[in-house]
UniProtKB/TrEMBL annotation:
<feature type="domain" description="Poly(A) RNA polymerase mitochondrial-like central palm">
    <location>
        <begin position="47"/>
        <end position="177"/>
    </location>
</feature>
<dbReference type="Pfam" id="PF22600">
    <property type="entry name" value="MTPAP-like_central"/>
</dbReference>
<dbReference type="GO" id="GO:0050265">
    <property type="term" value="F:RNA uridylyltransferase activity"/>
</dbReference>
<dbReference type="InterPro" id="IPR002058">
    <property type="entry name" value="PAP_assoc"/>
</dbReference>
<dbReference type="GO" id="GO:0010628">
    <property type="term" value="P:positive regulation of gene expression"/>
</dbReference>
<keyword id="KW-0479">Metal-binding</keyword>
<feature type="region of interest" description="Disordered">
    <location>
        <begin position="1"/>
        <end position="32"/>
    </location>
</feature>
<feature type="compositionally biased region" description="Pro residues">
    <location>
        <begin position="15"/>
        <end position="24"/>
    </location>
</feature>
<dbReference type="Pfam" id="PF03828">
    <property type="entry name" value="PAP_assoc"/>
</dbReference>
<dbReference type="GO" id="GO:0061157">
    <property type="term" value="P:mRNA destabilization"/>
</dbReference>
<dbReference type="GO" id="GO:0046872">
    <property type="term" value="F:metal ion binding"/>
</dbReference>
<keyword id="KW-0460">Magnesium</keyword>
<protein>
    <recommendedName>
        <fullName>RNA uridylyltransferase</fullName>
        <ecNumber>2.7.7.52</ecNumber>
    </recommendedName>
</protein>
<comment type="similarity">
    <text>Belongs to the DNA polymerase type-B-like family.</text>
</comment>
<keyword id="KW-0963">Cytoplasm</keyword>
<dbReference type="GO" id="GO:0005737">
    <property type="term" value="C:cytoplasm"/>
</dbReference>
<dbReference type="GO" id="GO:0000956">
    <property type="term" value="P:nuclear-transcribed mRNA catabolic process"/>
</dbReference>
Length: 367
């Protein structure tokens, strides 16, 4: 009763094994308008209890706070003006209890000061303060110090002045407070992507951050809208990172009822999300833009052709680093895998008697 072998497994099978099965075929024809099944809402309770089970516990959040406290105590002795920020999935409201803890050290560094030297000094300080497994990795694209904290039992990566990531984290966290359906949709889509093997950038599929942006953009475009476009509103928060202004309306407590006119349930939204990505998204021409609250054209972004390793086969614009396409890692093979998975999900939600089981059936990666 195992799931079909992953399309990735077809590469380099040992010669003594039978040939792998062909990749899954496209499901049915591309229909532009499918009438949504009438009983879709029957699956809302099951989806909501899945969402609740994926939410991190209060205990886990308390451990994160404890970790930041211990780190702050250590860092402030050596660098009294430095600030520590949690960023990424552990802090943007979209992480689960297994999410990595990422910390950014914000510090005024003279331009000529070497980040590698700073990280080595930081590692030395943290070793003295009895953090475990302290390791400075200075050659990475984003240099970090890895540590384990015996107090909270958590491990974390610390980088320096990655302030775009801090701004992105705050933006996502603010969107998450406007309408709980965003958290419900994003947790369920991320869970699906992980189980189906399409949440692995090193294999050419999409990051969790990309899926969250896809969910925000999708809810910005529902009729009536469920989410506003915060960057199109009068900014109440502005930070300048590397000469780029990151600005948006962050007083989201004023927007609590923004999506109230839209009555769609999580089951209806999940159905519509997968139908959009399976049958309606214009992969050839469109870019998903949370910044604009809409799709924009690849032409406008100059993302029509491959540049170096950046292919623009599915385009998701970073809201602040707007030259950054989160879909650039997807190649000719993995775009097919992604689209087949979107179609599989859409078909299961439309026709399956118990979609909540089939939808999340894990890929069978044979070792």
């Amino acid at each position: 009763n195992s799931s079909p072998c992953s399309p990735f497994q077809q590469l380099g099978s040992p010669p003594d094994q039978p040939p792998p099965p062909p990749p899954r075929q496209r499901v049915g024809t591309r229909r532009w308008r499918v009438e949504r099944r009438h009983d879709i809402d029957a699956f809302t309770p099951g989806l909501l209890s899945l969402y609740e089970s994926l939410n991190p516990s209060e205990e886990h959040k308390a451990k994160q706070r404890q970790l930041i406290e211990s780190l702050t105590n250590s860092v402030s002795k050596e660098w009294p003006n430095a600030q520590l920020h949690l960023y990424g999935s552990c802090a943007n409201s979209f992480g689960n209890s297994h999410s990595d803890v990422d910390v950014c050290l914000q510090i005024d560094t003279a331009a000529e000061e070497n980040i590698a030297e700073l990280l080595l000094a930081l590692a030395e300080t943290l070793r003295k303060d009895d953090f475990d497994n302290v390791e400075a990795i200075t050659s990475a694209r984003v240099p970090i110090v890895k540590i384990a904290d015996p107090g909270s039992g958590l491990s974390c990566d610390i980088c320096v002045n990655n302030l775009f990531a801090v701004a992105n984290t705050k933006l996502l966290k603010d969107y998450a407070q406007i309408d709980e359906r965003l958290l419900q949709l994003a947790f369920i889509v991320k869970h699906w992507a992980k189980l189906r093997g399409v949440n692995e950038t090193y294999r050419g599929t999409l990051s969790s951050y990309a899926y969250v942006l896809m969910c925000i953009s999708f809810l910005q475009q529902r009729e009536p809208k469920i989410l506003p476009c915060l960057q199109a509103m009068e900014p109440t928060y502005t930070v300048v990172v590397d000469g780029t202004e990151c600005a948006y309306f962050d007083q989201v407590d004023q927007l609590k009822d923004f999506g109230a006119e839209n009555k769609e349930s999580i089951a209806e939204l999940l159905w519509a999300f997968f139908h959009y990505w399976a049958f309606h998204h214009d992969y050839r021409n469109d870019v998903i833009s949370v910044r604009m609250g809409n799709t924009i054209s690849k032409q406008e972004k100059n993302w029509t052709t491959r540049v170096g390793n950046d292919r623009h086969l599915i385009c998701i614009e970073d809201p602040f680093e707007t030259s950054h396409d989160l879909g650039r890692v997807v190649d000719r093979q993995t775009i097919r895998v992604l689209r087949e998975e979107f179609e599989r999900a859409a078909t299961i939600l439309q026709y399956d008697d118990d979609p909540c089981v089939a939808l999340f059936e894990p890929y069978d990666y044979e070792s």
